[in-house]
Amino acid sequence: MATPRFETIKAHIESQINQGDLRPGDRVPSENQLCEQFDVSRMTARRALQALTDDGLLIRTPGLGSFVAEQRPVASMMEVRNIADEVQQRGHRYRAEILHMESCPADEQQAWLLNIKPGTELFHSLIVHYEDDLPLQWEDRLVNPAMAPEYLQQDFSQSTPNAYLSQVAPLTEASHKIEAVLVEEKIASALDIDRMSPCLQISRRTWSAKGVVSLATLIHPGDRYCLGGHVKQ
Amino acid sequence: MATPRFETIKAHIESQINQGDLRPGDRVPSENQLCEQFDVSRMTARRALQALTDDGLLIRTPGLGSFVAEQRPVASMMEVRNIADEVQQRGHRYRAEILHMESCPADEQQAWLLNIKPGTELFHSLIVHYEDDLPLQWEDRLVNPAMAPEYLQQDFSQSTPNAYLSQVAPLTEASHKIEAVLVEEKIASALDIDRMSPCLQISRRTWSAKGVVSLATLIHPGDRYCLGGHVKQ
DNA sequence: TGTCTATGGTTGTATATACAACTAGAATGC
DNA sequence: GCATTCTAGTTGTATATACAACCATAGACA
Predict the structure, then answer these.
(1) Secondary structure of residue B10 in the 3-state scheme
(2) In this complex, do A172 and B78 lie within 8 Å of one another by their Cβ atoms?
(3) Which residue in the set A77, A199, A226 is minimally distant from B198, CB to CB?
(4) Which of the four pLDDT bands, split at 50, 70 and 90, describes residue B182?
C-alpha cells in the first residue's frame, strides 16, 4: 500500500480544483458517488473529502453536499512568502544586494537548531531585499548543506533563497517567532533607517520531509512593512 | 447525540494534559485501552486520538503508541488568544487595569470599519493587562453595540473583553495586521517602558456570524512579548 | 393557490471486523 | 555470549453496515 487510496482520491480532487475543472462554489461528487467512481468504501471516500475540508479547500454541509470553498484559504502569515513575488505583485521593481555568501563551521547552537553535528560546514547568506530603491528586508540565513548542496552556487540577485529552497527541498513544516526590536548599527545602515526606529523581526525555521532545511532571521523596517492575514472559521 | 462520543474522549484526554496529569512525553492510553475504558469501538477511540494529534497535542508512532507532544503547540498567531489564559498557563498571575470604559459616537472611519452608521453610539474600552506586576498589553477596543449590548456592564478586571465577546458573539472570521511601532508617551508610561523601545502592535478586526463585532489595537512591549507559531504541511 | 407532508439524497456518527506495517522485548538457536 | 527469530502490542488502512440529522424537492392535500 504505497500511497493510501484516500490520498489518491484527495489528490485527484485537489488537482481538479487547481486546474480549474472544479471552480469555487462547484459541487464535488458526494461520498457515495466517489465510492462507485473509485471503487472504495464510503469511509475511505469520506476520509479524502474530510482531509480536503481540513485543508480549507472544501465546505461540507449536511443534507446538501460538498462544495469547493469560495475563498482559497488565505495564506496565513505563517506561510513562507516570497518577498520578490510580493514586491512585484505590488507593481514595484524587486532587486537584491548580496552582502555575504559563504560556508562556515556550525557552532553549538546553530548545529542544534539545524540538527547537524557541531563543526559541520553550513551555508550562510546575508542579503538585503529592495522594493525599487528602498531596502525592505534584511535576510540572514543559515542553510543545512545536506538539504541544498548547491546553495552557494545560486544567483540570488534576481531570485531569492526562499524560492530556491522551496524548489530543492519543498517545505513541510515551519516555526516562527515575531518580535519588535531595535537593530544594531550595521543592519540599520544597510536598511537605511535610524538606529532608534522599530523593526519587525521574524525568526523562522523551516523543515522539509527530510529534516531541518534552514534558519532565517528577517528584519523589516517597521514603517515600511507589516504582516497581515485573514482567517475564516 | 448532543456531543459526539469521540469529543468526550478527546476532551477527557485534553483536560488531563492541561491539568498536568499527563505530562509531555507521557504515554496516552492506546486505542484498544480507550475502547474498554469508554466502551466505544476502536474507530471512535482512534478518532479522538487523531483529533488530538491534528491539534498538535499528541505524537503517534506506529508500533509504539501515542505520546503527549514535547512542545505544546504555539497557537497560530492568527488565532485570537485570550491573554489571561496565556499568562495563567505560564504560571503567572493575571490582572487588568481598566483605564477607560464608555460609549461614544462613531466617527466616519470607525463607522465604516464596524459597519454601522456614523454617529451611532459605540463602546470603547481601554485596558492594560498585567502579568504579575509587569504590563504586558495595552488594549484599545471598539465594540459594535449591536453585537454585545451589555459590554459596558461587564467586569473586565478578572475576565477579558476577548473572553466575553467570544461568548456572546462567537467569532467566525478575523483579520490582522502586525507592525513594529514606537508609541506615544501616554501608552509608554502605561506600559512602563521607554518611549524609544519598540513595540509589537496588532490591529485586529473580528466578525461573528452576524457581522463585525470589534476592532482592537493591541500593543506589547517588544522585549516582553512575541508572537510564535508552528505550522505543519 | 398555498401549505403541509413524504421522500430521496446528503453528511455526521458509530460499530465490528480484517489485515498490514512497525516496534520492543522475549524466546530460541548457534 | 551473541545474533536471529518469534510474538504481543501498537498504529495505519480499508471494508461493510447502520442509524441520525439535515436539506431540497415533489407530491398530496386543503
Answers:
(1) helix
(2) no
(3) A199
(4) very high
Pairing of strands B171-181, B199-208: antiparallel
Other beta carbons within 10 Å of B198: 26
Consecutive H or E run containing B205: strand B199-208
Judged by CB atoms closer than 8 Å, whether chains meet at B222 and A178 is answered as no
Report the interhelical angle of A5-18 vs A31-38 (nearest 10°): 110
Query: Which among B174, B198, B231 has CB closest to A198?
Result: B198
User: Touching check for A205 and chain B: CB below 8 Å?
Assistant: no
Each residue of B88-103: pLDDT tens digit?
A: 878 789 999 999 999 9
* Closest nucleotide over all strands to A61 (CA to C1'): C11
Q: Which of A134-138, B174-178, B196-200 has the lowest mean pLDDT?
A: B174-178
pLDDT(A75) > 50: no
Name the residues contacting strand D (CB < 7 Å): A 1, 4-7, 39-44, 47, 61-64; B 1, 28, 30-33, 43, 46, 49-50, 60-66
Residues A141-196 pLDDT 10s = 999 998 999 999 999 987 899 999 988 887 777 888 889 999 999 999 999 999 99
Determine the pLDDT at residue B71. 65
Contact B182 A197 (CB under 8 A): yes
Longest dimension (CA), chain B: 65
Q: What is the mean pLDDT of chain A?
A: 88
Tell me how far apart the alpha carbons of residues A73 and A57 are, in angstroms, rounded to a whole number: 7
DSSP class per residue in B66-100: EEE-SSPPPPPTTS---HHHHHHHTT--EEEEEEE
C-alpha cell at A158: 534576481
- Residues in chain B with CB shorter than 8 Å from the CB of A227 are 176-179
Q: Which domains does chain A have, with CATH numbers?
A: 5-68 (1.10.10.10), 83-221 (3.40.1410.10)
**Which residues have CB under 8 Å from A5's CB, separation 6+?**
A38, A40, A44
How many Cβ atoms from other residues are within 10 Å of residue B173's Cβ?
16
